[in-house]
């Protein structure tokens, strides 16, 4: 069985989304698997080659002005045409640290994801307000679930 790659791309400015990303990475890395590699990159460092070698994707962003971060949008801008027609459908999940309700960021991500093509494989995780220990645990579960799905051959 060949190794599969779970790519986690995120942006954080204040540190809350970074804390969420670390929990997602921890959860994804916690499965006892020799078949899944977890690769985490800041949105400004991730590129089209990362997408082309990924078997699944988790995207993380703060909500900025009711939208995703500029850094995550930049990732989409820099990779869309480079992978067009080359990318197999990728299962993906999203986590958002929101000050409002996160729906604007989620709507924009979903719209862009449809064009890649990404296939939403889990319910999005939107944390509104202050980040709690329970929210961090949900982030771990998000990472664990997608990594386990890759390991089991579901994705």
Report on the structure:
With 155 residues, the protein is α/β, with parallel strands linked by helices. Helices cover 42% and strands 24% of the residues. The protein has 5 helices and 6 strands. The chain has helices at residues 16-29, 48-52, 70-83, 103-115, 133-151; strands at residues 4-10, 36-42, 56-62, 90-98, 118-120, 125-128. Strands 1, 2, 3, 4, 5 and 6 form a 6-stranded parallel β-sheet that branches. Helix 1 links the parallel strand 1 and strand 2 (36-42). Helix 1 packs parallel to helix 5 (133-151). The longest helix is centred in the C-terminal third of the chain and has 19 residues, at 133-151. The chain is globular and about 40 Å long. It starts with a strand and ends with a helix. The relative contact order is 0.23. The model has no long low-confidence stretch (mean pLDDT 96).
Number of helices: 5
- What general form does the structure show? globular
Query: What portion of the residues fall into strands of 2 or more residues?
Result: 15-25%
The total beta strand count reads 6
Terminal-residue CA separation? 14 Å
Q: What is the CA-atom radius of gyration, in angstroms?
A: 14 Å
Structural class: alpha/beta
Main sheet record: 6 strands, parallel
What does the average pLDDT come to?
Answer: 96
In short:
The protein has 155 residues and is an alpha/beta fold.
Key attributes of the depicted protein:
155 residues, six-stranded parallel beta sheet, 5 helices, globular
């Amino acid at each position: 069985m060949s190794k599969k790659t779970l790519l986690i791309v995120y942006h954080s400015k204040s540190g809350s989304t970074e804390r969420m990303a670390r929990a997602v990475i921890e959860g994804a890395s916690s499965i006892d698997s020799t078949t899944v590699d977890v690769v985490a990159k800041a949105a400004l460092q991730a590129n089209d080659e990362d997408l082309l070698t990924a078997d699944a994707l988790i995207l993380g962003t703060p909500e900025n002005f009711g939208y995703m971060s500029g850094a995550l949008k930049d990732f989409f801008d820099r990779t869309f045409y480079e992978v067009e027609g080359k990318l197999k459908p990728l299962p993906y999940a999203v986590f958002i640290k929101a000050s409002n309700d996160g729906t604007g960021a989620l709507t924009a991500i979903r719209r862009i994801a449809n064009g890649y093509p990404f296939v939403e494989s889990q319910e999005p995780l939107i944390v509104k307000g202050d980040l709690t220990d329970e929210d961090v645990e949900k982030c771990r579960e998000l990472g664990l679930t997608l990594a386990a799905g890759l390991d089991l051959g579901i994705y």
